[in-house]
Amino acid sequence: MMIDIDQILTDAAEAVTAEMPKDTSAQWRSRLDAFKAWKEVSGKWPSMNSVDLDERSFAQWRNKQLRLPAGSDRRATLDNEVPGWVRSQSRWDEAFAALLDWSADHDGATPRVGASGDEGPHATFLRHNRLHPDRVTAEQRALLDVAYPGWWKTQHDKWIEELDGFCVWFDENGKTFPRRSVKGTEEFRWNRWLEGLRRRTNDPKKLELLDARVPGWRESGSVAERITTPDLTWMLGFNATSDWVDEHGALPRSNGDDTDESLHGNWLRLQRRLADGECAELLDERLPGWRTGRASSPRWHMFVANVEATAAWLEQNPGRTPTYSEPSVEGRAAHQFLTRLRHASDNYSEKALALADKRLPGWRTTRQS
After folding, report:
1. Which of the 8 DSSP states describes residue 45?
2. Would you put residue 122 in left (φ > 0), alpha (ψ -120 to 50) or beta?
3. Are 234 and 280 in contact (CB under 8 A)?
4. Are 331 and 313 in contact (CB under 8 A)?
5. What's the whole-model pTM score?
6. For the segment 176-192, what is each residue's pLDDT rounded down to a tens digit?
7. Rounded distance, CA 85 to CA 93, Å?
């Protein structure tokens, strides 16, 4: 077999050529034409803060061209075909100008962090300046101060201002807590502010400040509004709710399944806000868990619902025991519940079994249909 030296040399030359970097002049020319077309249509220079992907891509390409060596052919081409392509402003100046334009289009608003659309990048620009004040020059700070007073304030700074404002109102009104019933007033606004803190604040620093400056703020009512001594009306509600709990074995829910439960649940919810002194002691003794409402068990409510549904089926079908082949969904569900109850009665509490004995007489024995 003869070796073709010429073919070997040809293949080697092609391999070397394939590994050499390709000429990108055509690609660069194509990109330049696209850049020029975009600028002509938009009438502006592309911005890195834009939400438009094409615009950001052109802005990145323009920034990359700034690294071209002086006197290069490509730089000369840009100078001839795209006059002014070299930045006359810093990136900060461009971002600030874009921010001013955005605010002008939105009635002078300040962009919010986390907002969607083109608002987000502008908010990020402000936030970056706030978090890195050492990078902001005196001239830049002056521009921001004029256009966006207080731009440098953090969320905590703004919260402290709110607290100061509340304390002024609190002192001027005899250290009484604002009421919710006076809608449309400054008092109502402070009531909503304070209620929001009660529900959501868990920052130790904020809690410490509030405890020091607004004693008693954690309570959901002023001292004057709290109920300490039981009167006749209070005792009627207390006894009725206690009787309901004794019957159902659980604390009532304000969003309960029936009107009675909701009524007692709302009464108990009110006590969590206002009960104190002797009233609170009575509730602690008679209704353990009333302060949190967590003594109510979802499993218990489910058990009660199953008992009631089975009792309803038995009342509609006197003398019968539901079987697995019942034509109705309710009948098959009653059969499954009774079967579980009989085979696993040891797993149920005495309270649950007592309820079953009361509502489902004879459930412990299987009756033939």
Report:
1. -
2. alpha
3. no
4. yes
5. 0.33
6. 888 877 777 888 888 88
7. 16
